[in-house]
Amino acid sequence: MAATETTGKVAPEPIKAEPPSVTKYFALVEVVLRFLLFASALVAVLVLVTSKQTKRLQFPPFPLVITMTAKFNQSPAFIYLVAALSVTGFYAVISTLLSFYSLLKPGYFTKALSHFVVLDVLLLGILASATGAAGGVAYIGLKGDSQVGWMKVFNIYGKFCRHVGASIAISLFGSIVLVLLVLLSVYSLSKKIPK
Amino acid sequence: MAATETTGKVAPEPIKAEPPSVTKYFALVEVVLRFLLFASALVAVLVLVTSKQTKRLQFPPFPLVITMTAKFNQSPAFIYLVAALSVTGFYAVISTLLSFYSLLKPGYFTKALSHFVVLDVLLLGILASATGAAGGVAYIGLKGDSQVGWMKVFNIYGKFCRHVGASIAISLFGSIVLVLLVLLSVYSLSKKIPK
């Protein structure tokens, strides 16, 4: 902005014209990443919430039929993951809109960026730990733990297993997007420091 | 440094003397935080590795005695936590020494800082997910899951339970220290941008 105003001098430092386009490029990448974060959080929540499966178990010699239901809210780890993904998705909507707005009006970019990176780091910690917790519980469900007598249950619930696995994978993708967002913020901050 | 060399002029901008002391203060806080990270990772690994407990279970009417052992390497989640804590501790040793060195010679601070923040963010993701995974598994061990028939086992192993719980709590502290380190890096970078 300041470089374009000084038109009186001869050849007013052509290298100064680069920073605005670099900032614009960073802002565009940030909008795309934030939208990806929103999309992944939304898809992961929907996949996990719709994972309910009811199974009728019948043991052939007996006429007894047991109806068993697997749902995400039976395990605290999956509830934690849904909560973390909901918060991430809600934050991602707001931050996508604000960073898109600051892409159109570049003056607001620095202010928005410096506040978002704090929330990005906090949400990265929350989402990564929620993904880890759900992954740890899902691994026991998949493989069981013979040492303490926890039997595997995912061979009974096929649909539930697929939904939980897909949701954890998408949450992992969301965590990686958050890492990239923090690194982008740090990189774009370090670009603004004069050499 | 540059402000102290210009002693020839009358009152050479006293406000310019602040930035070096602020940088020095940031560097000191960073060394303290990195040392805390190293200490917490070391303590958490030691507490988790020494959690082995052997229990002799005897059922009174029968003469049968069953020897059961609880150890961290029976669960993949605890192995992941030990691995993540070891990597974090190893990285914390190196980064503590380097940031202490750059505290003595401030010229190296910017270069070291800009490289460390990338690793800080990555390790935050890894350590938070490992803490979450171990916490999820430990919660099942503590409370059980009656829906799928996983019984609680931490009432049998008292010492193992205490060690695992303490290790997870210290890992959580380490994750918070990593969040603070990333925020400190971002804050100290944003301080260097000219207004």
From TrEMBL, chains A, B:
Q: Which GO terms describe its cellular component?
A: plasma membrane
* Name of the molecule in the record: CASP-like protein
UniProt entry keywords in alphabetical sequence: Cell membrane, Membrane, Transmembrane, Transmembrane helix
Its subcellular locations are:
Cell membrane
Instruction: List the coiled-coil residues.
Output: none
Chief subcellular location: membrane
Q: Which Pfam families match?
A: CASP_dom (PF04535)
How the protein sits in the membrane?
Multi-pass membrane protein
Record's family?
Belongs to the Casparian strip membrane proteins (CASP) family.
User: What NCBIfam families does the entry give?
Assistant: A_tha_TIGR01569
Its source organism is Dorcoceras hygrometricum
